[in-house]
Amino acid sequence: MEKIIPFTIKDLAKITNHRSGEIKFGEKMITVPKDTDSLEFLKTCEAKYVLFGIPEDIGIRANYGRPGAASAWDSAIKSIANIQHNRFCKGSQLFVLGQLNVSAEMKEVEHLDFNDIDDRSKLSQLVEKIDKDVSHIIFNIIKLGKIPIIIGGGHNNSYGNIKGTALAKGKPINAVNFDAHSDFRILEGRHSGNGFSYAYEEGFLKKYFIFGLHENYTSKNVLDIIKKIEDRVRYNTYDSINIRKEKDFNQEMALALEFINDDFFGIEIDLDSIPNIACSAMTFSGFSVEQLRQFISYFAKNKNAAYLHICEGAPDLGEEKNNHLIGKLIGYLVTDFIKTNIT
Ligand SMILES: N=CN[C@@H](CCC(=O)O)C(=O)O
């Protein structure tokens, strides 16, 4: 776990706005004591959930996207530290592991250009490097019987989450992905658009349900591939649920759960499925925040839910005066997960 920058009690104190008569998550969340190995500490720690940040956007750059998602972790942890610790949710359920140290990699990509074939290959190689670290860390967390809550970063990190969980569980896992995009693009070198196809091809992902695909942004090629493997990969579209009303949101959640619930599954949330959220693939049309919150609550209730990954939110691409809002949204999603997760 040497690639982790631990989050200390001092870091937490700096971002918590203390008020007399109130108790904030920042006063109750668990951090690793000074000079203690995170993993050793985690073995003895009672908190069930492990918060882990991946402040990178290299996978997004390698996918011709707009960088900015590296800033979501900072924004999220600041918001989470200021949630009220009360009868509805307790900060002490969360261990703040810290963030993946990607500073060297982020420096390296500053001047790389997606349009240059050599640069693109360098970007993909760096994504592979991050994949290894992410899967190693997720493996260790899950092996200890804990539940990771991962704040990205690009959706490329679905690969490391799935691989790490599968290795820890000793078998391939399933995933449900609330997303406008399939991220099942061809195996052309790693990036944020092919985390699930790589995990599938390499045998870490068994069954995959994509919830709320945007019909306008899914290629014929991907639809054809998915059609051929529909015993293992299924989807519904946002358009068929919220626009044409051919399908019902709640019934679709039940169908998706039935599909993936024969084994452990990861819950993947891409914030580019929600309108007006600053993201690489920002949109004005999509499911509401309330639908997303209901989705997390619904899937978290199941004992097979192995982790939660929230990604692609990019405060740096948002309005300067309101760039705390993505962190605040992530805070709601994290507490929705904790409040209903019963594993
Ligand atoms: N993870 C997101 N993948 C989408 C969006 C790409 C982008 O614009 O950043 C995709 O590959 O289509």
UniProtKB/TrEMBL annotation:
Single Gene Ontology BP term?
L-histidine metabolic process
- This protein's record includes keyword Secreted: no
InterPro entries, A to Z: Ureohydrolase, Ureohydrolase_dom_sf
Instruction: Give an example GO molecular function.
Output: agmatinase activity
Its domain of life reads Bacteria
Q: Name one Pfam family in it.
A: Arginase
Q: Which family does it belong to?
A: Belongs to the arginase family.
Q: Indicate yes or no for the key word Ribonucleoprotein.
A: no
Question: Which PANTHER family does the entry link to?
Answer: ARGINASE/AGMATINASE, FORMIMIDOYLGLUTAMASE
Keywords, comma-separated and alphabetical: Histidine metabolism, Hydrolase, Manganese, Metal-binding
Name the record gives this protein: Formiminoglutamase
